[in-house]
Amino acid sequence: MIDAVFPSVASIVSITVLGAVFGILLSYAKIKLHVERDERLGYIIEALPGANCGACGFPGCSGYAMKILEGSIPLNLCMVGGSETVEKISRIMGIESGVIRSKKARVHCQGGSDVTKFRFTYDGPLSCYAAKQIRDGFKVCRYGCLGLGDCEKSCPFDAIHMNDRGLPVIDRDTCTGCGNCVAACPRNIISLVNSEFDVHVICRNTEKAPMMKKGCTVGCIACNRCVKACKEVFADNPDIETAITVVNFLADIDYTKCINCGKCAEVCPQKVIEFKKKPVMAG
Amino acid sequence: MAFNTFIGGIHPPENKHLTEDKAFSNLSIPQLCYIPMQQHVGKPANPIVEVGDTVREGQLIGLSDGYISANVHASVPGKVVEIGRYPTLYSKEGVCVVIEAQGAFSTSGKILDEEQWESLTALDLINRVAEAGIVGLGGAAFPTHVKLQPPRKRQIDTLIVNGSECEPYLTVDDMLMQTHPSEIIEGVRVALKILGITQAFIGIEKNKPKAIQALEERLTAISIPEKITVAPLKVKYPQGAEKQLIHSILKRNVPSGGLPMDVHVVVQNVGTIFAIREAVVLRKPLFERFITVTGEIVKKPGNYKARLGTRISDVIEECGGLTEKPGKIIMGGPMCGIAVDTIEIPVVKGTSGLLFLKNEEIQVSQYRPCIRCGRCVAVCPAGLMPFELVNAIEKGRYDLVEPSNPFDCIMCGSCAYCCPSKRPLNHFIRMAQEKLHKKHKQ
Questions:
Q1: Coil, helix or strand for A40?
Q2: Is it the case that residue B156 has pLDDT exceeding 90?
Q3: Rounded to the nearest 5 degrees, what angle is found at the Cα of B180, between the Cα atoms of B177 and B182?
Q4: Taking residues A136-149, what's their average pLDDT?
Q5: Contact residues on chain A for B367, CB-CB shorter than 8 A
Q6: CATH fold group of domain B132-281
Q7: Is A83 exposed, middle or buried (0-12, 13-18, 19+ CB in 10 A)?
Q8: B325, B422, B431, B438: best to mutate for the A interface, most A CBs within 10 A
Q9: What is Dmax (Cα atoms) for chain A?
Q10: B231 Cα to chain A: minimum distance (Å)
Q11: H helices of chain A, where?
Q12: Whole-prediction pTM value?
């Protein structure tokens, strides 16, 4: 009987002794090796959205929080959190923050697979980057969307989806303006635009109209009608001549002058200028 | 005797029967010659002629720009009618000098004087090679004068001449070795003198018995101070890849991220060796090269001598046309060649062949997920694990990609060839290489 009990007694005793020894060691280490930590760090990390998207330029939200505590970094870099987050952080830090302009990603191409021509059949990796390596892309247009969804894969917020025409569609409510898709697109088709503006040129082709028409039916033909319409709008204003210009056979809106009237979109024969009056959004 | 070979590799159908026994014939001179300024690895040459100039055959028209660059010469005599941007093999819009053929040919069809080169110094010889604008004619088109001048620190002891021609369909090197063995041996001797060494191997796959015989007969017939040996190799793709060739012949392993000169070897293609000999002995710049025009749909497949700058459309016409619309046109061999999207592309220095494939011969299908069968690992001659690399690339996990040595990939395509899921593995790796290059530059 004692033989059966003895081993268990020995193990109970040895585990207890070991536990006590390590416990004492750990509690000693906690006091001796204590690191002074700014308690604001935890609050800031909590205030940040926690998406770790990297839009602020630092490795993840905690990386940005640590840089904020070090100082000399603006508080308004978190595009994703918007003004709410910035306010919270400035309250924690007790400093005045800059204003945050909410930006949204915008696709500048409407050349879906139904309106564009292909030069050859591509059967390589399903990645726009890889497709661009093969003779500069399989579409005739060298500027347009390749439609293999690098942007969709890069979006940490699930705000981009490819439609059945092979074009990315950005959900404006979910888009936080982090800019990951802008970096992922090998054709530079996506850009960040201030979300106050509803008018965008959705073409990137800088070739003359006949060259452009060889590959796509919905590109900018540089007819200058938008410029004319814009000049009429600003006819009374001596400071501004026009907010839209045609550079390299492509319309270009200067958002510092644009008043969001949408006149240019109305006259565009190719429907290359998109104007969507949207309800006022939060953030 | 055990076959000389390397680890890994595949056995694709050779399909060399189409052009195997076709002797070289000359393609006629195209009316318009589109000569790209970029026919090599490195910086494009600078055009030094102007529109309206009359040029001689073989006149320098593009001056090498920088250390890794090469001269470009006029392939035909005539008038420069345009300097513009046209599609080339390496870019969609590359600078081309367009020459309209007219006037007399100064070198073609004549027997040129053979100069004595034995008394020249290595420096004179290398200058002649550089002036002639010679690049690697196997396909990579790396400037030869750079390759023949390894840094002083690197001791070179062996020259390997690559006559393996492991690419299916191509027969141009085979035919060159059969018909010009003495020229090749002279070229090898010139290259040996430039490198200051005396040992050379000519590696030839065993499926070219005539070439092996021709070179061996020639070597026994003449007495030369250099030690040149013909090394028969096992028929396997990619036997002609630099590092694999070195392993097959010398059993030396080029370290990861290293170059052949790290194991004291310089590798040159037989076509390049032939061009070196022409440049040094005949003072003839590189303005024409041998190409294989092949494919079941070509009416007159064969081995041809083509002027650089002849467009594919002219070549098709010269070869009797095609019996049906091609599904794919490839410049080079089917494994490592570059598929082209227009027949307006001119033949360049790196074009070893033109392959026209039928629609039935190509497979365009969507690839499927990796089933981890490991066939790619078994065949990879570089000792990589392609499936693991590619799965990481597909997920965007570049932190896992980098430690797996993606830069050791030689782009032979063996993995993609044997993949049962038809995954374009080497294309994925190429994409990763470019992305990582960009990352390192930043």
A1: helix
A2: yes
A3: 105
A4: 91
A5: 123, 125
A6: Rossmann fold (3.40.50)
A7: middle
A8: B431
A9: 108
A10: 37
A11: 2-32, 40-47, 60-70, 82-93, 128-133, 150-154, 180-184, 209-213, 225-233, 263-267
A12: 0.86
CATH of range B29-110+286-360; options 3.40.50.10490, 3.20.20.10, 1.25.10.10, 3.10.20.600? 3.10.20.600
Q: Is A68 helix (H, G, I), strand (E, B) or coil?
A: helix
Q: Is the pLDDT of residue B2 over 70?
A: no
Q: From CA B266, how far away is CA B223, in angstroms rounded?
A: 24
- Whether residue A280 has pLDDT greater than 60: no
What are the structure tokens assigned to A204, written together? 């990137």
What is the distance between the alpha carbons of residues A224 and A240, in angstroms, rounded to a whole number? Answer: 17
Residue where the block lists tokens 């510092």: A256
All residues at 6 or more sequence positions from B365 whose CB lies less than 8 Å from its CB, including other chains: A123, B422
Query: What region, left, alpha or beta, does residue B394 occupy, with left being phi > 0 and alpha being psi -120 to 50 degrees?
Result: alpha
Q: Is pLDDT of B51 > 70? A: yes
Q: Where are the domains of chain B?
A: 29-110+286-360, 132-281, 375-441
B440 burial (CB, 10 Å; 0-12 / 13-18 / 19+) is exposed
Other Cβ atoms closer than 10 A to B372 = 12
HSE at residue B39, side-chain half, CA atoms within 13 A, is: 38
As a whole number of angstroms, the distance between CA A246 and CA A206 comes to 10
Rounded Cα distance, A88 and A213, in Å: 51
d(CA B366, CA A240): 53
Q: Which residue has the tokens 């990763």?
A: B432
More confidently predicted of B114 and B334: B334
Judge: A121–B430 Cβ closer than 8 Å, yes or no. Answer: no
Q: Count contacts between A and B (CB, < 8 Å).
A: 38
- Residues of B with Cβ-Cβ distance to A135 under 8 angstroms: 92, 340-341
pLDDT at B153 over 70: yes
Q: Using CB atoms, which residue from B91, B367, B396 is nearest to A153?
A: B396
Residue B148 has pLDDT above 50, yes or no: yes
Residue with tokens 């490839």: B330
- Non-local (6+) Cβ contacts of A174 within 8 A are A157, A158, A159
Which domains, and CATH codes, for chain A?
40-93 (1.10.15.40), 102-196 (3.30.70.20), 198-278 (3.30.70.20)
C-alpha B105: how far from chain center:
27
